[in-house]
């Protein structure tokens, strides 16, 4: 045998184990592990992820040939463990076939249940079980699933109806029944007959009756589903490589639909929404697993406490709850006790919150799956900190358990309390994924994308969602569904995305044709505003203002812990005292970039600025600048005050001058009047300032070098502000930064202006203050000659926005025209303006840091491009030895955590 392609498990034995997830997929590895630790799992086998690749390389026939001997043996193993025979009429073994990739991809790929049934086996199984309804119900489900998935009958266009669903609706209508479970045995037989006729009509083939033929079809269909559109989209979103492939798990069937002592469900060892240490989940009596996830029937709670909370939200009395919606703890107490014991065992074993699927077949409990549960950002923090407190994991593990980007959710908006109190609650659903969202109603995923592109926030309203809706969900602010429970597709996927979601709002009447949603007589149309509270399940009419979230104690503790381990400091990019204050609250220890441009744009300042630019000579410019000086000084005072005791890097004016001058007639006339010159003169000047390529034009220190008056004025404003604050007892640590340096002399000229101006200010004010003069490194030439520049510059701040632009030669402003195609074709893996290109741009950062420190060992180096708040880029900055990263205020906690993880990952 060249290599092992099949790994068996069952009855406490397994060829695989948990750490083999790359080969066996997450599900396969955990099925093996559960066997090894004594959790009851139906016996089966896993075909490795490597075979998926072989399938794409060698094709179906060759792969079947390669697999045959091992699969045959593995089937025999199951047969001996369950004492039944695959394809046998009298004592048949039925199996399930499921996908299972290395990383969990919920609902993305296909599953086939009840495989092995045919017309003869059905009769045999009826004789064996004595349960005619159950057998025919299983058969009709199998034919439908097999037809949809393996024979390709599931409509590609989602407007089209599944042919099998159409038949079910017809049979129900003909027989005057509403629910599937009201169908009689005769109805079910009729369904199978019609299903098979539909298969023949649509594919020209007879439905396969040979068990092995069915099995190979299903295995290959799972491999095919690795490349279906929704799986590809999901992988793109989650950054999962296509080469990984999926494993296939084949297991003996256990049935949750064998009557009232059978059930199926999904459960979590802790709350995936808020992290509370509370076992929870949902189950359905007499159902198969797909019914829970698909949201076809609304399931009931597993625990009494969960059930009571649910009833309270739904306004159901305790008596009614007990009578009609009992929890599993009440309805099946012994099985519940076993389930509870095993879920704890699994959590203890994996030392993390588990997401589990189970089936009860005639009173016997089986686990079908366990995995580390997906969770919201809030739950991620709480569970990590709780497990730390419980002594289950270490501080280092706790820090590594939180994905930095997930912190975004904790920092994201909640409803403004006042606005919320005035808003009208339309209805209530389940609090499926927390947060607040407000947006315009849309009913279809495609429309959501269009609306989003047009700049509108979107709320996607659906009866229920399916994996086809993924792209629409990704661009929506929030998701609202009329059906489905807390483990429905909408709920699970929204939580994974960290999006607000309310599911199962049963009072909604969604009319896709009319594009309306009605609640208690209120009709809302597509485009109307709607607001959702994913933490309470409330749905509000209209637009409800949101506000930033409060951080809780767990979050604060996590941040403290991050600082304990990190070396890299985190500063912020802030241009206003308000932003500086927010960032400080988030733990920023200084400002790494204060862009001064915006300070010139408001009110009187823009007029004086325009006057300066339009002036003919230095004298006119100095006069205009003297009008700006007091404003600048006050701006700086506000910022330095907010950052009392922390360093503040103020960057001198950067953007091209044409951005400041008026391009409209009225604006030009106003300037002409103000300056007492003709409008033609103004227009000539405006035209003269126009550049073919402003990004590479008269900006950055080229401005300060051609108009040193600007540098003088800004230096004066900064240092005067600091000296005045010094008298008020504020500790200012100013760092003056020259933008867009490419040549040492460009910097040197500016430095001279800065230092001379400083001396003048100090003499005039009869006081001094320490300050540093440094530069942005954002032009490749500056990085290449960093040793020369560092001979004068006291600090470097990498402007990786411009550095990326100039290293790739991609215009920052125009990349959108080709980026999507580049990403699609995998020419680029990610947008280099979001994630630092470590191989190219990163090399320049590393080299410049080393070269700079060769001549100035204490050279302070930081980064202030957008990458400063992106986790993988932050980790790179740590490895290169930068002193700090600087990012927008709301990304400060993300960068702090990433900085700590960088240390921990290094020591691994
Ligand atoms: C940069 O180029 O990375 C930078 C921070 O400056 P700006 O984005 O203002 O050009
Ligand atoms: Mg720049």
TrEMBL record:
<dbReference type="Pfam" id="PF02896">
    <property type="entry name" value="PEP-utilizers_C"/>
</dbReference>
<feature type="binding site">
    <location>
        <position position="799"/>
    </location>
    <ligand>
        <name>substrate</name>
    </ligand>
</feature>
<dbReference type="GO" id="GO:0046872">
    <property type="term" value="F:metal ion binding"/>
</dbReference>
<keyword id="KW-0067">ATP-binding</keyword>
<feature type="binding site">
    <location>
        <position position="800"/>
    </location>
    <ligand>
        <name>substrate</name>
    </ligand>
</feature>
<dbReference type="GO" id="GO:0016301">
    <property type="term" value="F:kinase activity"/>
</dbReference>
<dbReference type="InterPro" id="IPR023151">
    <property type="entry name" value="PEP_util_CS"/>
</dbReference>
<dbReference type="Pfam" id="PF00391">
    <property type="entry name" value="PEP-utilizers"/>
</dbReference>
<feature type="binding site">
    <location>
        <position position="595"/>
    </location>
    <ligand>
        <name>substrate</name>
    </ligand>
</feature>
<dbReference type="InterPro" id="IPR040442">
    <property type="entry name" value="Pyrv_kinase-like_dom_sf"/>
</dbReference>
<protein>
    <recommendedName>
        <fullName>Pyruvate, phosphate dikinase</fullName>
        <ecNumber>2.7.9.1</ecNumber>
    </recommendedName>
</protein>
<feature type="binding site">
    <location>
        <position position="651"/>
    </location>
    <ligand>
        <name>substrate</name>
    </ligand>
</feature>
<dbReference type="InterPro" id="IPR013815">
    <property type="entry name" value="ATP_grasp_subdomain_1"/>
</dbReference>
<dbReference type="InterPro" id="IPR015813">
    <property type="entry name" value="Pyrv/PenolPyrv_kinase-like_dom"/>
</dbReference>
<feature type="domain" description="PEP-utilising enzyme mobile">
    <location>
        <begin position="457"/>
        <end position="537"/>
    </location>
</feature>
<feature type="domain" description="Pyruvate phosphate dikinase AMP/ATP-binding">
    <location>
        <begin position="68"/>
        <end position="388"/>
    </location>
</feature>
<dbReference type="InterPro" id="IPR010121">
    <property type="entry name" value="Pyruvate_phosphate_dikinase"/>
</dbReference>
<feature type="binding site">
    <location>
        <position position="802"/>
    </location>
    <ligand>
        <name>substrate</name>
    </ligand>
</feature>
<dbReference type="GO" id="GO:0050242">
    <property type="term" value="F:pyruvate, phosphate dikinase activity"/>
</dbReference>
<keyword id="KW-0479">Metal-binding</keyword>
<feature type="binding site">
    <location>
        <position position="801"/>
    </location>
    <ligand>
        <name>substrate</name>
    </ligand>
</feature>
<dbReference type="InterPro" id="IPR036637">
    <property type="entry name" value="Phosphohistidine_dom_sf"/>
</dbReference>
<dbReference type="GO" id="GO:0005524">
    <property type="term" value="F:ATP binding"/>
</dbReference>
<dbReference type="InterPro" id="IPR002192">
    <property type="entry name" value="PPDK_AMP/ATP-bd"/>
</dbReference>
<dbReference type="Pfam" id="PF01326">
    <property type="entry name" value="PPDK_N"/>
</dbReference>
<feature type="binding site">
    <location>
        <position position="802"/>
    </location>
    <ligand>
        <name>Mg(2+)</name>
    </ligand>
</feature>
<keyword id="KW-0547">Nucleotide-binding</keyword>
<feature type="binding site">
    <location>
        <position position="778"/>
    </location>
    <ligand>
        <name>Mg(2+)</name>
    </ligand>
</feature>
<keyword id="KW-0670">Pyruvate</keyword>
<keyword id="KW-0808">Transferase</keyword>
<dbReference type="InterPro" id="IPR000121">
    <property type="entry name" value="PEP_util_C"/>
</dbReference>
<feature type="active site" description="Tele-phosphohistidine intermediate">
    <location>
        <position position="489"/>
    </location>
</feature>
<keyword id="KW-0418">Kinase</keyword>
<comment type="similarity">
    <text>Belongs to the PEP-utilizing enzyme family.</text>
</comment>
<comment type="function">
    <text>Catalyzes the reversible phosphorylation of pyruvate and phosphate.</text>
</comment>
<dbReference type="InterPro" id="IPR018274">
    <property type="entry name" value="PEP_util_AS"/>
</dbReference>
<feature type="binding site">
    <location>
        <position position="778"/>
    </location>
    <ligand>
        <name>substrate</name>
    </ligand>
</feature>
<dbReference type="InterPro" id="IPR008279">
    <property type="entry name" value="PEP-util_enz_mobile_dom"/>
</dbReference>
<feature type="active site" description="Proton donor">
    <location>
        <position position="864"/>
    </location>
</feature>
<keyword id="KW-0460">Magnesium</keyword>
<feature type="domain" description="PEP-utilising enzyme C-terminal">
    <location>
        <begin position="556"/>
        <end position="902"/>
    </location>
</feature>
């Amino acid at each position: 045998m060249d290599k092992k392609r099949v790994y068996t498990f069952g009855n406490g034995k397994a060829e695989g184990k948990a750490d083999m997830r790359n080969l066996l997929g997450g599900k396969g590895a955990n099925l093996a592990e559960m066997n090894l630790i004594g959790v009851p799992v139906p016996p089966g086998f896993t075909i490795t992820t490597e075979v998926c690749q072989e399938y794409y390389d060698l094709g179906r026939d060759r792969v079947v040939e390669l697999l045959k001997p091992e699969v045959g043996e593995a089937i025999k193993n199951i047969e001996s463990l369950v004492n039944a025979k695959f394809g046998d009429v009298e004592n048949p073994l039925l199996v399930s076939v499921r996908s299972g990739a290395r990383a969990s991809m919920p609902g993305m790929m296909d599953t086939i249940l009840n495989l092995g049934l045919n017309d003869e086996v059905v009769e045999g199984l009826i004789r064996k079980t004595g349960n005619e309804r159950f057998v025919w119900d299983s058969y009709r489900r199998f034919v439908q699933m097999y037809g949809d998935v393996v024979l390709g009958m599931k409509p590609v266009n989602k407007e089209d109806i599944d042919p099998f669903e159409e038949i079910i609706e017809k049979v129900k209508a003909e027989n005057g029944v509403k629910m599937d479970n009201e169908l009689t045995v005769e109805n079910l037989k009729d369904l199978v007959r019609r299903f098979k006729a539909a298969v023949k009509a649509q594919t020209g083939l007879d439905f396969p009756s040979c068990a092995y033929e069915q099995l190979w079809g299903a295995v290959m269909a799972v491999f095919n589903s690795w490349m279906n559109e929704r799986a590809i989209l999901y992988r793109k979103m989650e950054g999962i490589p296509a080469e990984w492939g999926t494993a296939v798990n084949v297991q003996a069937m256990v049935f949750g639909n064998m009557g009232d002592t059978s059930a199926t469900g999904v459960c979590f060892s802790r709350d995936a929404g808020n992290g509370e240490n509370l076992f929870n989940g949902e189950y359905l009596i007499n159902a198969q697993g797909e019914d829970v996830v698909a949201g076809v029937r609304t399931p009931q709670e597993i625990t009494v406490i969960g059930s009571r909370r649910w009833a309270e939200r739904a306004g159901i009395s305790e008596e009614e709850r007990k009578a009609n919606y009992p929890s599993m703890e009440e309805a099946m107490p012994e099985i519940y006790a076993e389930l509870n014991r095993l879920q704890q065992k699994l959590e203890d074993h994996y030392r993390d919150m588990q997401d589990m699927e189970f089936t009860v077949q005639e009173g016997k409990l089986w686990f079908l799956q366990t995995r580390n549960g997906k969770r919201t950002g809030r739950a991620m923090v709480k569970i990590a900190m709780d497990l730390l407190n419980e002594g289950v994991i270490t501080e280092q593990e706790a820090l590594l358990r939180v994905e930095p980007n997930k912190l975004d959710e904790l920092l994201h908006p909640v409803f403004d309390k006042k606005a919320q109190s005035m808003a009208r609650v339309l209805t209530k659903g389940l609090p499926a994924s927390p947060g607040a969202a407000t947006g315009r109603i849309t009913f279809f995923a495609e429309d959501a994308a269009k609306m989003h592109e047009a700049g509108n926030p979107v709320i996607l309203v659906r009866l229920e969602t399916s994996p086809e809706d993924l792209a629409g969900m990704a661009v929506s602010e929030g998701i609202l569904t009329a059906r489905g429970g807390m483990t429905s597709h909408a709920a699970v996927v929204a939580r994974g995305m960290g999006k607000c979601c309310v599911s199962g709002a049963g009072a909604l009447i969604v009319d896709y044709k009319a594009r309306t949603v009605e609640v208690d007589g209120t009709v809302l149309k597509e485009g109307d505003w709607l607001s959702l509270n994913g933490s309470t399940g409330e749905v509000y009419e209209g637009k409800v203002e949101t506000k930033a979230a409060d951080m809780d104690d767990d979050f604060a503790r996590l941040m403290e812990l991050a600082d304990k381990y990190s070396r890299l400091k985190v500063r912020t990019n802030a241009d206003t005292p308000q932003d500086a204050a927010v960032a400080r609250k988030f733990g920023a220890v200084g400002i790494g970039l204060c862009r001064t441009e915006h300070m010139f744009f408001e009110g009187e300042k823009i007029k004086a600025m325009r006057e300066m630019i339009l002036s003919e000579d230095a004298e006119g410019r100095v006069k205009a600048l003297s009008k700006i000086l007091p404003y600048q000084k006050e701006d700086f005072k506000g910022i330095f005050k907010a950052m009392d005791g922390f360093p503040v890097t103020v960057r001198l004016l950067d953007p091209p001058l044409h951005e400041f001058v008026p391009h409209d007639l009225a604006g030009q006339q106003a300037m002409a009047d103000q300056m007492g010159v003709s409008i033609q003169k103004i227009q000539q000047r405006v035209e003269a300032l126009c550049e073919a390529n402003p990004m590479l034009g008269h900006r950055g220190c080229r401005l300060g070098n051609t108009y040193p008056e600007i540098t003088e004025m800004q230096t004066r404003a900064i240092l005067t502000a600091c000296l005045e604050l010094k008298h008020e007892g504020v500790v200012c640590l100013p760092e003056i930064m020259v933008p867009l340096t490419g040549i040492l002399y460009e910097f040197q000229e500016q430095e001279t202006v800065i230092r001379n101006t400083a001396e003048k200010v100090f003499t005039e004010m009869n006081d001094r203050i320490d300050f540093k003069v440094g530069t942005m490194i954002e032009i490749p030439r500056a990085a290449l000659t960093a040793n020369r520049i560092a001979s004068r510059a006291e600090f470097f701040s990498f402007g990786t926005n411009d550095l990326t632009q100039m290293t790739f030669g991609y215009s920052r402003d125009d990349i959108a025209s080709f980026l999507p195609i580049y990403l699609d074709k995998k020419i680029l893996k990610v947008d280099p303006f979001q994630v630092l290109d470590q191989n190219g741009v990163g090399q320049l950062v590393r080299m410049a840091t080393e070269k700079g420190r060769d001549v100035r060992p204490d050279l302070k180096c930081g980064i202030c491009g957008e990458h400063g708040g992106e986790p993988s880029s932050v980790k790179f900055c740590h490895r290169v030895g930068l002193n700090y990263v600087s990012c927008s205020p709301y990304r400060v906690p993300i960068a702090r955590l990433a900085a700590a993880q960088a240390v921990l990952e290094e020591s691994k």
